[in-house]
Design brief:
Keywords: Membrane, Transmembrane, Transmembrane helix. The chain contains 23 helices and two strands. It has 649 residues and is an all-alpha fold. Helix 17 runs antiparallel to helix 19. The longest helix is centred in the N-terminal third of the chain and has 32 residues.
Amino acid sequence: MTSTPDLAAELASLGRRLDSVEARLQAFGVPDAQPSTAAGADAPATAGSDAHADADAVTSVLERPAAPSWGPSPQAPAWGPPPGAPAWGPQTGPGAPSWAPRNQDQNQAQGRPAPWPTGLPTGWGRPPVAPGAPAPASRATANGARLLAWTGGAMTLLGVVLFLALAASRGWGSPAARVWSGAVLGVVLVAFGTWMHRVETRRGGALAVAGTGFAALYLVVAAANRLLGLVEPLAVLLALVVAAAGLALADRWRSALLASGIVLGGAVLAPVLVEGPLLVALLLALQVAVAVVALRRGWSWPALLAAAGPALTASVVVFDSDPWRILAVLATTLLGLAGAALAVRRLPDGVVGGLVALAVLPALVLGPEVDGWGGAGIAAAAGLLALALLAVPGVGARLRTALVAVAAVAVLEAVLVALDGPVATGTLLVVAVALAGTAVAVRDRLPLVVAGGFWLVGTLLAVAVDAPITALVDFPQYPYLVDGRGQTAEIVGGVVVSLLVLLASVALTVAGGRLRLVRPDSATAGIWAPLGVAGLYATAGLIVSLALLVSPERTAFTVGHAIVTVSWTVVALVLLARGLRRPALRVTGLVLVAGAVAKLVLFDLVVLDGLAQVAAFLGAGLVLLAAGTRYARMVAEAGQPGRGGHGAG
């Protein structure tokens, strides 16, 4: 017969097995199984006190009330991990299981539900969704709701404007009553939006309502200025109060959209109240107020919008005769650059670069208007101030590029404002050569890129004005000859400019090769091909200008072109010789040969005459013949083992 201790052990083991089965069933969402009490009936009764205690414990386990399938049971939490699952966070408190969610105590203390574990099987650890329950709103639905709310706000604002216009046309009430009614409406809308914002699900509509209210208050300030004769200083003060209140609310709600709306509303209202330098002062005050919030929250769009207002307005005020215009431009530039310096560590580099460009814009517009050395000094000073921001800690690569670009534009404008003619063009080309040398010295490509910009502008001015292409293809031609008489100053200018274009092209090509930006292959043809064409043009301009400087006659003109043709063939020979193992140079040389032949047939044969024509054809022909013979031998030698290596490439 089975002893009492053996019976107690069997009953305890049976209870543990039933607990395990029930926990597994509940973990997979199966309703509580109501176990049969047959097991208890099959167990024979014993007289021992230990056996009775064990039997009572088993009975209490089997007869306990069923727990919900998705929540914790009194003894075995149904939403815990299955047996053998790793613990995913401790829970404090008496009797708490070791696998409870992390931070559960903190969440409960703050009134938030404990987080559900991730990566669990479907139906385990989460409450079931009731049939017919609405699905969570999608992002598109939320955006549509916001759009609807803002559209309603715009329509409401338009309705206010129409009502005020209709009331004024039909004489409904006094002007003061109409203004006060609009003020009450604006305050009510702002208050109602604040009340709505207290509920999280209503915050999208609260922004639209509050924004409409502040827009209505802006309209009230404008109406008070026009209808009630409110003096401009007081109207400006009220507008700033409305803007400050709106920005404070946007800062509290952390809404960049509301802040952007406040900025736009103030920018639209400002021209209604004041004009001229006073308008710039009002927008600068608004910019300062916005900068405090935008830098605090890291908002890009409000900062850009606030900076655009005074920058664009000051750029327009420049063309007025108001004596305060220079002060307005100076204030806009200094405050804008100061704000950009403060934003270096708080806003993205692209946004800070935009702030710098907007700050410098009025000074760049004022420079040509003042003209002369004064205007050049204004532009150059703005560029140097922008370049000084490089000393601010935290300047990134993109912002560095933007600052250098702004400074380069300012210096370019200063040169063109202070100088003109070949002097201005030559100065730009000299700057290009100096920047190319600087790029090689500091091993940085950025100065070389800026040098390319100066080279491009200088070359275009040379081709169009100072060494015009028309003066190189026809005789006589302005400005080298006027009424059959040579213009020495203009010809000397053409010689100098052509020489500088040639030097700048060579300097950029060499510097690009040193910095591995220009390589003798097709990948960088977009860089060295224009430089090569400019070099050939400069060579032709230099030779023809020198010939005309010696003798401003047609004979000198034709001789000069004959020398140009021969020089092209010589350059082609050099390129072919250097291109045995560099396909790009070889192709360039062949193209130049084709260009020289085309010039012989299409230009020299038609324009030149006499000995110049003969000299052009004989010289080019002999050079090409010698070049062909020499090149053929070099290719053959390069293809022989031990002579040229690995062939012609």
